[in-house]
Design brief:
Distance between the termini: 66 Å
InterPro entries: Bifun_inhib/LTP/seed_sf, Bifunc_inhib/LTP/seed_store
Number of strands: 0
Number of helices: 6
Protein name: Bifunctional inhibitor/plant lipid transfer protein/seed storage helical domain-containing protein
Order of helices and strands: HHHHHH
Keywords: Signal
Strand content: under 5%
Shape: globular
Helix content: 55-70%
């Protein structure tokens, strides 16, 4: 009998915790990708002389669509900006169908 009450308690606690995680609003900072995640997902599409456009359903576009422009811009380190092609950034925005832009691009 005690084991069924314990199982019910932990099962109920799990459901309550799951509901809390689902309903907690996320703020913009929590959704910002780290520079490493952004580079891993999008680097190949913005570096070099003629990088390919990213696939719309790919990881790069998913990150860009799920984050604000200011969040993405703040994730690009200053030292990396000179290596990023402005034309490629334009292609990424077009391919991913995002409208935000970062200063200098």
């Amino acid at each position: 009998m005690a084991s069924s009450k314990t199982a019910l308690f932990f099962g109920s606690a799990f459901v309550v915790m799951l509901m809390m995680v689902i309903t907690i609003p996320s703020d913009v900072d929590a959704a910002c990708p780290s520079p490493q995640i952004l580079f891993a997902a999008c680097g190949q599409y913005v570096l070099g002389s003629n990088p390919p456009p990213p696939p719309y359903a790919g990881k790069c576009c998913n990150i860009l669509r799920s984050s604000s422009a200011s969040c993405i811009c703040s994730s690009i380190p200053a030292y990396a900006r000179s290596s990023i092609s402005a034309k490629a950034v334009s292609n990424v925005r077009s391919s991913c169908r995002v409208s935000g832009s970062c200063p200098g691009f």
